[in-house]
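Model it.
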Amino acid sequence: MNILIAGVGGQGTLLASRVLGNYAGLMGYDCKLSEVHGMAQRGGSVITYVKFGEKIHSPVIADGDSDVLLAFEELEALRWSHNVKKGGKLLMNTQKIMPLPVIIGASEYPENIIDTLKKGQFDFYGIDALGIAKACGNEKALNTVMIGYFAKVVGIDRDILKKALEMSVPAKFAEVNIKAFEAGYNA
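Modeled.
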């Protein structure tokens, strides 16, 4: 499976990739991860490639070869949607984070992103992961809401993915993250 995770610095894309990597390990798959950080500390784009299967030779996913795009922000979903293969899945958190060029007035945030994505050659799924994470008690858990949603939409083993999540987060944050995972799964 080829998964591209796209978001903005601080949204937890790297933790999400570790959770999926741990899931692959628990399932006995070979797994490769690759991270591209950009200007992540200043709210810039962050992407992570997660590939797992019987034998994986390279962590990089070619354009148009992602089975799933897990997008933590609308503009990032639009920016990376070309990577989703025909018949693949695009799962998106319906949150808008204004990049610096928009904030300073040098450009405009694109309109109608959801309508544009719904016209793609992939299955589109949108969720208010930020709102769900806030309802669970911690807005930073939006990444685990997305992981739970991913498990449901893609149809992978919920219990093993939840175990991978527990392996990936510090014990003091396990409860809120499990709650967020379950809320995402049930969304």
